[in-house]
Specification:
6-stranded mixed β-sheet; binds coenzyme A
Length: 260
């Protein structure tokens, strides 16, 4: 499929999505959002992709935000549509049914931080920088940042970041739980690929069911969440991979999963 502002390739069942506007620090303009929607809609239906890695082209930025030259022209009605469009694409990523790893290789500001937040696991390079600087532009985050950041790192820390517009470095992001791990920039994609391969080697139906329970956590009560979990557990017990995984353990050998 042809994209204007992203690169997409599949290697060993891992999908690599690269936002590719390095001269604009990979800022998300409308065309790029359309590309992301098309790409992730395809990935959702593609059994050849088990894990996705998202990164930014170039050495400076993951994504430096929504495109400010487009935001600048918005009126109130257009702004509501603008925010809802970004939210729906980031919801598509969060609810993809497959793990998505953000490999944050530089600035992740505004919509870039929100894109990383919509991914399930965040790894960062040592030069990564995170922030929600929208208040500097007279706006609030609009692509889910007030919700996802607050749930991820707690309301006090989220309020401090969003209300000051401060930009933090990778080590601070690690300290407050915004990212899982920090690596030298030259190792980031290698480490993200290792993680993706590890997840990809597991029973994919179980991975997908577990992810569905994890992602639903914020939307469900404890009772509803546990009900969903027991349902996912039960469904897994009807798969070939369940038989293979448990047989392999009992026979003291490595499992060979077929994703059936
Ligand atoms: N929207 C549109 N264009 C952007 C952009 C964004 N969010 N972020 C960077 N760019 C563009 C710049 O306008 C510049 O384009 P130009 O060369 O045509 O002038 C190019 O990307 C390089 O950015 P520049 O500002 O020159 O790089 P820098 O290293 O001096 O600064 C940042 C890097 C990230 C600190 C700075 O670009 C910045 O503050 N960007 C906006 C971040 C932001 O507020 N994001 C939230 C948006 S809601």
């Amino acid at each position: 499929m042809e994209y204007k502002n992203i690169l997409f390739e599949i290697k060993n069942n891992i999908g690599y999505v690269t936002i590719n506007r390095p001269d604009k620090l990979n800022a998300l303009n409308d065309e790029t959002l359309d590309d992301l929607k098309k790409c992730f809609s395809g990935i959702k239906e593609d059994y050849g992709v088990s894990v996705v890695i998202v990164a930014g082209a170039g050495e400076k930025a993951f994504v430096a935000g929504a495109d400010i030259s487009e935001i600048h022209k918005l009126n109130v009605i257009a702004a509501k549509h603008f925010a809802e469009k970004g939210q729906s694409i980031f919801n598509l990523i969060e609810k993809l049914g497959k793990p998505v790893i953000a490999a944050v290789n530089g600035y992740a500001l505004g919509g870039g931080c929100e894109l990383a937040l919509a991914c399930h696991i965040r790894l960062a390079s040592e030069n990564a920088k995170f922030g929600q600087p929208e208040v500097n532009l007279g706006i609030t985050p609009g692509y889910g940042g007030t919700q996802r950041l607050t749930r991820l790192i707690n309301s006090g820390r989220s309020a401090e970041l969003i209300l000051t517009g401060d930009v933090i470095d990778a080590n601070e992001a690690l300290r407050i739980g915004l990212v899982n791990k920090v690596y030298p920039a030259s190792e980031l994609i290698v480490k993200a690929t290792e993680l993706a391969e590890k997840i990809s080697s597991k029973a994919q139906i179980a991975v997908s069911m577990a992810l569905r329970s994890i992602v639903s956590c914020d939307e469900l009560s404890e009772t509803e969440g546990q009900n969903l979990e027991s349902g996912m557990f039960a469904l897994c017990c009807g798969t070939e991979d369940f038989k293979e995984g448990t047989n392999a353990f009992l026979e003291k050998r490595k499992p060979h999963f077929t994703n059936q």
